[in-house]
């Protein structure tokens, strides 16, 4: 279907079903129950799942396939957001021009940065992208204040007078009248599910982005990108020029980041410089490796995992912890709560950093590899036999 | 002319910090082959060693006076720092006043210990892994360290003053025959520059004149061969890492009076220090030091108002001081990819 | 006029004359070996041939066009394929994928942006790669991870990848270095078979005499950066100058 083989079609359908039924799946607990805090089915969070999923899918096209580790991808996300908000300011609150422009602007910006950064590889490349992103961040705060509105962040003011905004148009981001922040809430017994317009727009775009990423992985172009990662020497002596391939991958992943940025602005019409900071770049790296770099589904899993736990962890406080562990004797409970207390609430960044280290040290293949390991344990097959039966090693093969 | 001298002087202190961090980064990269994204965090921890010592020394014993009352009628609390109780009033006060320089003594063992634990516990396992993994794991560590500091010390900068003897400024204007007051330079910045020069000199002397340093330099030139000579390179790596951590830490300790330390200062410096390393030439120690000072001075010149105005008026680039280092780095990498003093073959790809 | 013409090439590294006045002509459809003791300038010459080093003077023409200053991929696109001393293959990919990449390079050139095409549906490429694997007797290993193969198989794959591009000149850099005798003989047989089956020019840089005398039709002996003699294997065998250069005999 759609030019995909059977396995990929199944994967796409599974992801599509999960995305479309997410409002049900993410709200398994009744609204009034104690476990409701683990629900994730509210619009704001669901939007983040899929938007950062898009971001990570795009990042994976660069890092997962070519092995070029960019530490500046948040710059493209930020640029996308600014572009979208400018469209709102100039043309009106319909999100279509904003989203299109965010992709284009991020692509052009990525072409510029990629053209320079890709003259080097390895750590030079990482440092160059990091420097570019930090420079963009510094510029957004200072030099470019007329465009970015500096520290305040860019937003639409009533004095803006957009070109196509009529009196009847909603005064918030909308898609041909469909207001992004509006939801339909369905109540079934003790449960409540909300279906948000913005989420579905993001989810559909995420599915398109995911589909394109599968096609790229299965294309000759994708094969060449994996060749770049595997052996550039052989590639050059095989008559292939590595740089245009990596540059194309860089631009494509920059456009994905721009789309994510445009969607963030479409859900909440605000763009700030902090979206471009190195921590944001680090987050997408983490999402990708946590899920499994170079695999198809990994980045989506990683983005969902991180955004979910970010939300849960920041909601928990010390008394919640005491509530959970009250069954333990005090001498155990108190130190345990003391320890965990570092990681919750405002300590999410600490959790993120710790997770980062643990994944790189113990699970370089990410959740996908972890899942495969468990699967192999259950089915009792060793890795060696699998190799001999003719399947390539799991980590480098982009199926899943 | 006096303005130019002032800008050069102003660039020296930041340049010193860049040079010290870049020196450590280069040492670690050259000997261990590891890209340490946590090096900025070591600088930050050094600064917080100074903060910690200052806080410890200023701990006060609170006595409630039996006789005296405050203006509100509540009993007067008399606060006396323990340092003054134990060491006598004058000497105790002097210790508190000198807490930043004293923190050097405190920071050296702390930084060496942190360096040792980091290398043995984490970095060691990453020698053979790809650079991308090294970057990722040290990046994670940097986040952890900075968040821990934030957790215990808060997000706000903590003022950590220099000893009162160094709080004034020196008037170079008079000395050099310009108008009085035209070149005012704080004493502590002079101390910082002198301190950095001593540390840099000590590191170079150590590498140049000791057998240990000779092996390290040989290792930087050709790691495999030195390994083949049967020299226990592993232990030397640990020592090198500890040394680099101590250098970064000391740079942080002494920097606190110049800019009040906060938890993200490490990352701020790290990005720029990496740029410094790249501009100086990956793997070149003199390159790192030279580029550190050059970029520090350059940054200072870019913030000099006639230059800033020139860029704003003629090149439409306001706030050039914010981005000048990145611009220079990009130009250098495009025209001279090996950096100022980089050797052929070091990280060519 | 040979397919590869090296004229008056000089290269100095500081005080060392690495190549001194090298003239060399490789005739089309021959196997030409370049031999010489260690330090004779073999690898410097090879690096000049593939454009990695630019000589101080002289010219290197392939099929009437200069190769100097061109990137490796451009030289490959001109029709020169290179086999490395240690096999350079795409270790992370499967054998089949390894074989398809040069086929794509041959068909589409140095860069082709086709991110939405499907590898599996490029039937011409798939067929060509499969045929090449059959020719190389590796079709049963097609799904194997290339890095997990034996050294001999890696070498075989690398040669196959080069051949799939139908190069006019195949450059081999010590193709049997570090190989066991059996693997060496297999490689010799493979190269003989290749030569017998197709129109191809092969240039081998080698110091293993066994390999050279089994394969070569012409031999150039390099010593101290300069060609000593160029002749047929039979004449080279007994040549006093060669014995002197190689064995240090003052015959």
TrEMBL record, chain A:
Pfam families membership: BPD_transp_2 (PF02653)
Main location group: membrane
Membrane topology: Multi-pass membrane protein
InterPro entries associated with the record: ABC_transp_permease, LivM-like
GO molecular function: branched-chain amino acid transmembrane transporter activity
Annotated keywords: Cell membrane, Membrane, Transmembrane, Transmembrane helix
UniProt name for this protein: Branched-chain amino acid ABC transporter permease
Species annotation: Seohaeicola zhoushanensis
Lineage, highest ranks first: Bacteria, Pseudomonadati, Pseudomonadota, Alphaproteobacteria, Rhodobacterales
From TrEMBL, chain B:
Compartments it resides in: Cell membrane
Keywords noted in UniProt: Amino-acid transport, Cell membrane, Membrane, Transmembrane, Transmembrane helix, Transport
Protein name: Branched-chain amino acid ABC transporter permease
Superkingdom of this protein's organism: Bacteria
Main localization category: membrane
GO molecular function: transmembrane transporter activity
Transmembrane segments: 20-53, 91-114, 192-216, 236-257, 269-295, 315-334
GO cellular component: plasma membrane
Family: Belongs to the binding-protein-dependent transport system permease family. LivHM subfamily.
Presence of keyword Phosphoprotein: no
A single GO BP: amino acid transport
Membrane topology: Multi-pass membrane protein
InterPro entries in the record: ABC_transp_permease, BCAA_transport_permease
Pfam families in the cross-refs: BPD_transp_2 (PF02653)
Automatic annotation (TrEMBL), chain C:
Alphabetized CDD domains for the sequence: ABC_Mj1267_LivG_branched
SMART domains from the UniProt entry: AAA
UniProt keyword terms in alphabetical order: ATP-binding, Nucleotide-binding, Transport
Coiled-coil regions listed in the entry: none
ABC transporter domain ranges (all copies): 4-249
SUPFAM superfamilies: P-loop containing nucleoside triphosphate hydrolases
PANTHER family given in the database record: CONSERVED COMPONENT OF ABC TRANSPORTER FOR NATURAL AMINO ACIDS-RELATED, HIGH-AFFINITY BRANCHED-CHAIN AMINO ACID TRANSPORT ATP-BINDING PROTEIN
Protein name: ABC transporter ATP-binding protein
Organism field: Seohaeicola zhoushanensis
Gene coding for it: livG
């Amino acid at each position: 279907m759609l030019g995909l083989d059977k396995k990929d079609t199944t994967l796409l359908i599974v992801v599509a079903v999960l995305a479309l039924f997410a409002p049900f799946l993410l709200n398994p607990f009744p609204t009034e129950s104690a476990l409701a805090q683990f629900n994730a089915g509210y619009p704001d969070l669901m939007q983040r799942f899929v938007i950062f999923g898009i971001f990570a899918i795009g990042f994976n096209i660069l890092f997962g396939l070519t092995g070029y580790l960019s530490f500046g991808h948040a710059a493209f996300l930020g640029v996308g957001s600014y572009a979208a908000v400018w469209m709102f300011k100039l043309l009106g609150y319909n999100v279509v021009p904003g989203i299109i422009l965010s992709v284009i602007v991020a692509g052009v910006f990525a072409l510029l940065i990629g053209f320079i950064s890709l003259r080097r590889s390895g750590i030079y490349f990482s440092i160059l992208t990091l420097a570019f992103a930090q420079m963009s961040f510094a510029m957004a705060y200072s030099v470019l204040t007329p465009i970015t509105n500096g520290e305040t962040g860019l937003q639409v003011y009533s004095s803006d007078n957009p070109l196509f905004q009529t009196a009847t148009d909603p005064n918030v981001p909308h898609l041909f009248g469909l207001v992004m922040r509006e939801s339909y809430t369905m109540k079934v017994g003790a449960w409540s599910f909300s279906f948000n317009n913005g989420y579905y727009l993001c989810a559909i775009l995420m599915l398109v982005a995911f589909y394109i990423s599968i096609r790229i992985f299965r294309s000759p172009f994708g094969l060449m990108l994996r060749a770049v990662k595997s052996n550039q020497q052989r590639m050059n002596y095989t008559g292939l020029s590595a740089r245009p391939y990596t540059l194309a991958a860089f631009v494509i992943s920059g456009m994905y980041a721009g789309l994510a940025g445009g969607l963030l602005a479409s859900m909440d019409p605000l763009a700030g410089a902090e979206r471009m900071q190195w921590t944001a770049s680090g987050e997408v790296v983490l999402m990708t490796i946590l899920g499994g770099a170079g695999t198809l589904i990994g980045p989506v899993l990683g983005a969902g995992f991180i955004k979910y736990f970010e939300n849960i962890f920041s909601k928990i406080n010390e008394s919640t912890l005491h509530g959970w562990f009250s069954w333990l004797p005090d001498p155990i409970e108190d130190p345990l709560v003391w320890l965990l207390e570092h990681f919750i609430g405002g300590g999410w960044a600490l959790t993120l950093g710790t997770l980062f280290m643990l994944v790189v040290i113990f699970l370089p293949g990410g959740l996908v590899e972890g899942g495969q390991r468990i699967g192999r344990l259950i089915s009792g097959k060793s890795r060696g036999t699998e190799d001999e039966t003719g399947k390539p090693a799991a980590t480098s093969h982009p199926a899943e | 002319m006096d303005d130019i001298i002032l800008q050069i002087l102003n660039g020296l202190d930041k340049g010193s910090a860049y040079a010290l961090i870049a020196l450590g980064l280069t040492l670690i990269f050259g000997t261990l082959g590891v890209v340490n994204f946590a090096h900025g965090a070591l600088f930050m921890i050094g600064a917080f060693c100074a903060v910690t010592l200052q806080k410890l020394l200023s701990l006060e014993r609170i006595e409630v006076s039996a006789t005296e009352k405050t203006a509100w009628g509540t009993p007067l609390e008399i606060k006396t720092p323990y340092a003054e109780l134990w060491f006598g009033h004058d000497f105790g006060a002097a210790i508190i006043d000198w807490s930043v320089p004293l923190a050097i003594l405190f920071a050296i063992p702390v930084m060496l210990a942190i360096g040792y634990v980091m290398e043995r516990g984490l970095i060691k396992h990453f020698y053979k892994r790809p650079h991308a993994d090294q970057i990722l794991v040290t990046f994670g560590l940097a986040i952890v360290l900075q968040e821990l500091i934030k957790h215990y010390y808060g997000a706000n900068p903590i003022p950590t003053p220099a000893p009162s003897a160094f709080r004034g400024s020196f008037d170079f204007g008079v000395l050099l025959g310009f108008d009085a007051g035209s070149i005012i330079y704080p004493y502590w910045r002079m101390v910082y520059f002198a301190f950095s020069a001593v540390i840099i000199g000590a590191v170079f002397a150590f590498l140049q004149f000791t057998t240990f340093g000779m092996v390290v330099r040989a290792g930087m030139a050709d790691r495999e061969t030195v390994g083949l000579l049967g020299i226990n390179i592993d232990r030397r790596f640990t020592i090198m890492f500890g040394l680099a951590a101590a250098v970064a830490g000391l740079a942080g300790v002494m920097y606190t009076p110049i800019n009040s330390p906060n938890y993200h200062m490490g990352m701020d410096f790290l990005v720029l220090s990496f740029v410094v390393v790249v501009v100086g030439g990956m793997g070149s120690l003199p390159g790192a030091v030279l580029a550190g000072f050059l970029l520090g001075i350059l940054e200072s010149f870019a913030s000099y108002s006639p230059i800033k105005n020139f860029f704003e008026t003629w090149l439409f680039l306001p706030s050039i001081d914010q981005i000048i280092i990145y611009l220079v780095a990009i130009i250098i990498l495009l025209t001279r990819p090996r950096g100022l003093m980089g050797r052929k073959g070091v990280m060519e790809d | 006029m040979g397919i590869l013409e090296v004229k008056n090439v000089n290269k100095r590294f500081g005080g060392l004359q690495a190549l001194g006045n090298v003239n060399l002509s490789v005739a089309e459809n021959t196997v030409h070996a370049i031999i010489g003791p260690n330090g004779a300038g073999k690898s410097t010459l090879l690096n000049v041939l593939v454009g990695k080093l630019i000589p101080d003077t002289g010219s290197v023409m392939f099929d009437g066009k200069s190769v100097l200053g061109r990137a490796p991929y451009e030289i490959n696109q001109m029709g020169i394929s290179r086999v490395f001393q240690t096999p350079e293959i795409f270790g992370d990919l499967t054998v089949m994928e390894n074989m398809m990449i040069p086929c794509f390079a041959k068909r589409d050139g140095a860069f082709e942006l086709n991110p939405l095409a499907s590898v599996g549906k490029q039937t011409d490429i798939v067929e060509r790669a499969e045929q090449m694997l059959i020719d190389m007797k590796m079709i049963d290993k097609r799904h194997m991870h290339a890095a997990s193969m034996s050294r001999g198989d890696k070498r075989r794959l690398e040669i196959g990848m080069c051949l799939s591009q139908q190069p006019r000149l195949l450059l081999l850099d010590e193709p049997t270095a570090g190989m066991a005798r059996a693997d060496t003989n297999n490689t010799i047989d493979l190269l003989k078979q290749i030569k017998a089956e197709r129109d191809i020019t092969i240039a081998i840089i080698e110091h293993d005499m066994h390999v050279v005398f089994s394969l070569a039709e012409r031999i150039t002996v390099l010593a101290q950066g300069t060609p000593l003699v160029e002749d047929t294997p039979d004449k080279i065998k007994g040549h006093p100058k060669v014995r002197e250069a190689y064995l240090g005999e003052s015959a």
